[in-house]
């Protein structure tokens, strides 16, 4: 990795992104010493322009940024570091310096759409009609989709396998809603297992 530290007084901008959600968390700057320290310790260290010294994010708050990957842009003068944050990132108390809005991806949008169709009792919606049929039917549908996915896994038709995987995820989200749980709650369990 050949980083050009000569373009901006020995500093390069560093975009910090949550490795799990891909949410942009903050922007900082590194000089070569901060970069080497970050690589070695796997904890993000910046060069603070206001303090004119190295500054490890979390050194006072305990909200460290554990490095998962480091990438460089095409001009070799900007870094993208994916991290696992210990806690909130922004000094204002927000999780991200770019506000509270999570950019968690399409599955979260789909979860919200499913929730709206059920909460609004959307009559012409497959989602709501399945929900109306009760817990047994929703659970049975998840089971059916899981079996169909297993069957497709044994064959070599990639398109059918991916479609069955999508069906299983969709019906799983309906079941989660019916049980009163969210993807985020399931994510939290997985995050704890990943520690």
UniProtKB/TrEMBL annotation:
<comment type="pathway">
    <text>Amino-acid biosynthesis; L-histidine biosynthesis; L-histidine from 5-phospho-alpha-D-ribose 1-diphosphate: step 2/9.</text>
</comment>
<keyword id="KW-0378">Hydrolase</keyword>
<feature type="region of interest" description="Phosphoribosyl-AMP cyclohydrolase">
    <location>
        <begin position="1"/>
        <end position="106"/>
    </location>
</feature>
<comment type="similarity">
    <text>In the N-terminal section; belongs to the PRA-CH family.</text>
</comment>
<feature type="domain" description="Phosphoribosyl-AMP cyclohydrolase">
    <location>
        <begin position="26"/>
        <end position="98"/>
    </location>
</feature>
<keyword id="KW-0511">Multifunctional enzyme</keyword>
<protein>
    <recommendedName>
        <fullName>Histidine biosynthesis bifunctional protein HisIE</fullName>
        <ecNumber>3.5.4.19</ecNumber>
        <ecNumber>3.6.1.31</ecNumber>
    </recommendedName>
</protein>
<comment type="similarity">
    <text>In the C-terminal section; belongs to the PRA-PH family.</text>
</comment>
<dbReference type="GO" id="GO:0000105">
    <property type="term" value="P:L-histidine biosynthetic process"/>
</dbReference>
<dbReference type="InterPro" id="IPR023019">
    <property type="entry name" value="His_synth_HisIE"/>
</dbReference>
<dbReference type="InterPro" id="IPR002496">
    <property type="entry name" value="PRib_AMP_CycHydrolase_dom"/>
</dbReference>
<comment type="pathway">
    <text>Amino-acid biosynthesis; L-histidine biosynthesis; L-histidine from 5-phospho-alpha-D-ribose 1-diphosphate: step 3/9.</text>
</comment>
<keyword id="KW-0067">ATP-binding</keyword>
<dbReference type="Pfam" id="PF01503">
    <property type="entry name" value="PRA-PH"/>
</dbReference>
<keyword id="KW-0963">Cytoplasm</keyword>
<keyword id="KW-0028">Amino-acid biosynthesis</keyword>
<dbReference type="GO" id="GO:0005524">
    <property type="term" value="F:ATP binding"/>
</dbReference>
<dbReference type="GO" id="GO:0004635">
    <property type="term" value="F:phosphoribosyl-AMP cyclohydrolase activity"/>
</dbReference>
<keyword id="KW-0368">Histidine biosynthesis</keyword>
<dbReference type="GO" id="GO:0004636">
    <property type="term" value="F:phosphoribosyl-ATP diphosphatase activity"/>
</dbReference>
<dbReference type="Pfam" id="PF01502">
    <property type="entry name" value="PRA-CH"/>
</dbReference>
<dbReference type="InterPro" id="IPR021130">
    <property type="entry name" value="PRib-ATP_PPHydrolase-like"/>
</dbReference>
<dbReference type="InterPro" id="IPR038019">
    <property type="entry name" value="PRib_AMP_CycHydrolase_sf"/>
</dbReference>
<dbReference type="GO" id="GO:0005737">
    <property type="term" value="C:cytoplasm"/>
</dbReference>
<keyword id="KW-0547">Nucleotide-binding</keyword>
<feature type="region of interest" description="Phosphoribosyl-ATP pyrophosphohydrolase">
    <location>
        <begin position="107"/>
        <end position="195"/>
    </location>
</feature>
<dbReference type="InterPro" id="IPR008179">
    <property type="entry name" value="HisE"/>
</dbReference>
